[in-house]
Amino acid sequence: MTDTATTTTNEIDHTTTFLKDKHINYITNLDVKKDTFEYWVTEHIRMNGMYWGLTSLNLLGALEKMDKEEIIQWILSCQKPNGGFSGNTLHDDHLLSTLSAIQILVQLDSLDRIDINPVIEYIVKLQQEDGSFFGDQWGEIDTRFSYVAILTLSLLGALDRINVNKAVEFIDRCKNFDGGFGSIPGAESHAGQIFTCVSALALVNRLDLVDIDKLGWWLCERQLPNGGLNGRPEKSSDVCYSWWVISSLCTIDRLNWINTEKLKNYILKCQDNETGGVADKPGDIPDVFHTYFGISGFSLMGQFTDQVETIDPVYALPIKTIKKLGLKAPWNKLI
Ligand SMILES: [Zn+2]
């Protein structure tokens, strides 16, 4: 294809322009594409997908494009007798989809549509003797679940129902010599796990356990010459790390340790100029997961502030929602 042809098909230069309207169209059309491969392989995590899509639209000021009542009815149909929520109607409950359900309901101002007590009970029962959390009845343990449990209970105003000290002890045991955190004690540091551990500690006011400068150094070393971020040493860049790494840097107040201008340009290149949406890498096919992380990345870096609302790095919700709920966020100067 010649340069002239490129200009004709894609009039907007996506490497310099934020494609807000195209992203809104991309997300609102996702649910229509029920015959696609992506729809079926992600069927079991539809609740997470709904959170990524709905939160993106909320950040873009386009929440009214969603059918609020239809979403609430579907969420209610995913609640199980034990209080947990599943990824989709016919699937089993899981802590991850339970958090997504609550994050969606608070954004829709509809927490009063459910009885929160069974949800709280569900989470309380997943805490183990050593302070860790199971993700569901099958017993997988991961610091992701510690964050998810602590965050969900924070949103429900029920943090006092678990043993917070034990939960903190477990997270602290997952801290490594490099300042990072792993999924279980002894597991290597990974940006995703660092995000969950740092955020969980922030929510219970224990950021004193984080070696901020050492961790900040590990995190800023994730930026590659192309501007993108990786999640571990020796790995390639991927837009999803813009959320995990930047949110952690924001929470420990070290965002200025990376080159945000170069990262902004990297994420812009990952936009799909034709369909809208953001991919993991430049030229790849977009998906709702990376679209959310790309838009949130811009939000955390304070880019395109006239088009993207501000998200909180710990609650992973727009700060207007946090303010409405009256929650505390001492790590966030904007709240
Ligand atoms: Zn990714």
Automatic annotation (TrEMBL):
Domain Prenyltransferase alpha-alpha toroid: 18-316
Cellular component annotations (GO), alphabetically ordered: Rab-protein geranylgeranyltransferase complex
Pfam family, one: Prenyltrans
One GO BP: endoplasmic reticulum to Golgi vesicle-mediated transport
Gene3D superfamilies for this protein: 1.50.10.20
Keyword Magnesium: no
Function recorded in the entry: Catalyzes the transfer of a geranylgeranyl moiety from geranylgeranyl diphosphate to both cysteines of proteins with the C-terminal sequence -XXCC, -XCXC and -CCXX.
Family: Belongs to the protein prenyltransferase subunit beta family.
Protein name stated in the entry: Geranylgeranyl transferase type-2 subunit beta
